[in-house]
């Protein structure tokens, strides 16, 4: 039963919870973390860890996408980002870093990003970036916005994309555009021979709508990062992640029954900054997590310690700062698998997930979704 709170005469709001509001309960059984599996599979593609990178140029270059793939995750390139617009991305990133160093005004770096993203998209550059990833042998995934999905997808498929991510701050089953044909995800996905991951969503109904389009995965959230994303301040829109993940997992269960066995993966994207957040996301029902800011600490990250999301470059309503996201630098392998000497949960992210699963007695991700939870008082 929904927990409704009266916020004024005749107006109620649903009580919802963030990841910080919940805790995982150990069970009567424990096991060795060596006996725990974090593998998962979407369509024909199998991964060793439940990691998808948030598609921001701050953390994902073609080289990083390859490195993430070789470490068992899925790196997602932004097909509308800097690697799609500039032949010399290093020069573009240098301009951005200089703007953060030369000015105390947070708008200065955002203005540079807007200028960089005003350059036209070049499919030859996109194809070259995809080629680098494809030739390494790892799974090739790219992100497009709902507004440009129909336009860009044919060229992306020709370049060798294997998983398509259609992602916006908020996405619906049908994107309506004045003066143009709407993007109907159901017919769009039906015409493709590759799996599509779509989102973000924040509630049961929208998650169910996206599942009915034929999406292989649904993204919950919009990449909220404290001190970086400003969607709540700019649009008044927020996604309480613990509740949203649980709602999407309920939609997944009902859709499984509705279709007689079609399973759609739930991917959590937002409010995940520590290994504990990773564990709690899976415990709430996610199949994988989409990480952004935690990976900005990697020495391989192109943002050089800065972090922003794609919404920072919106030409008229930017919703992300360009922020100094890290106070240390580690290689990607150590960030994901340790060993760690940092007790804050910001390194060895997936080694810690294994330990959480072992401490509560679960051997794989699907089992761990059944772990007991409590709410902080």
From TrEMBL:
UniProt-listed CDD domains: IMPDH
InterPro entries from the UniProt entry: Aldolase_TIM, Dihydroorotate_DH_CS, IMP_DH, IMP_DH-rel2, IMP_DH_GMPRt
Lineage of origin: Bacteria, Bacillati, Actinomycetota, Actinomycetes, Pseudonocardiales
Parts forming coiled coils: none
Stated name of the protein: IMP dehydrogenase
Family: Belongs to the IMPDH/GMPR family.
Start and end residues of each IMP dehydrogenase/GMP reductase domain: 18-308
Any Pfam family: IMPDH
Source organism, top-level taxon: Bacteria
Signal peptide: none
Keywords linked to the UniProt accession: NAD, Oxidoreductase
The UniProt record lists the keyword NAD: yes
Segments passing through the bilayer: none
